[in-house]
Specification:
Layout lengths: L2 E6 L6 H11 L4 E7 L12 H11 L6 E6 L3 H8 L3 E6 L2 H17 L4 E6 L9 H9 L10 H14 L1
Parallel strand pairs: 1-2, 1-4, 2-3, 4-5
Bound molecules: 4'-phosphopantetheine.
Length: 163
């Protein structure tokens, strides 16, 4: 039984994240999407961890071997807790590389039994990020297609509450 883990903040999940999850789901018997609380990232996430989990569950409901959990620990400890031996990360433009390279080296230093592998984003999603999606949505631009439909509606509601 090979179990992988796709970690991230997912604030919110984008079509690029979903593409990586779908492709990773084909490589493992079971795939866990790990939603990091990331309380301190960019002034705090827009969606709570539990809202992010719910949105990812809805967006991945067609993938029977995918489950979603939140975590507030070191990633390697969470991987150990769920019995995953491989961390899967998506790589977009070169700008991702340095940060991901550093994180994979540190994770290897923390627990060398957990391997990190990278899946390249498809060109369509190469420059897509959760921050860009939130920026567009805040200015009332359309993010349809950039995020799963369920996220479009949740973003509209969340930003309306904040206005
Ligand atoms: O989507 P993100 O914000 O790029 O994901 C980053 C994430 C959540 C994978 C990273 O911050 C992480 O692994 N956080 C858990 C805490 C941890 O293990 N930090 C040490 C990694 S070097």
């Amino acid at each position: 039984m090979k179990r992988g883990i796709v970690p991230g903040t997912f604030d919110p999940i984008t079509s690029g994240h979903l593409d990586i999850i779908e492709r990773a789901a084909g490589l493992f018997d079971e795939l866990v999407v790990g939603v990091a609380y990331s309380k301190n990232k960019n002034g705090g996430p827009l969606f709570t961890a539990s809202e992010r989990v719910t949105l990812i569950e809805a967006a991945t409901s067609h993938l029977p071997n995918v489950s979603v959990r939140s975590f507030d620990t070191l990633l390697v400890d969470f991987a150990d807790e769920v019995g995953a031996s491989v961390i899967v990360k998506g790589l977009r433009a070169m700008t991702d590389f340095e940060r991901e390279f550093q994180m994979s080296a540190l994770n290897w230093r923390l627990d060398s039994k957990v391997e990190t592998m990278f899946i390249m984003a498809i060109p369509e999603y190469m420059f897509l990020s959760s921050s860009a999606v939130k920026e567009i949505a805040r200015h009332r631009g359309s993010v349809r297609g950039l995020v799963p439909d369920v996220v479009c509606d949740a973003l509209e509601r969340k930003l309306e509450e904040a206005r």
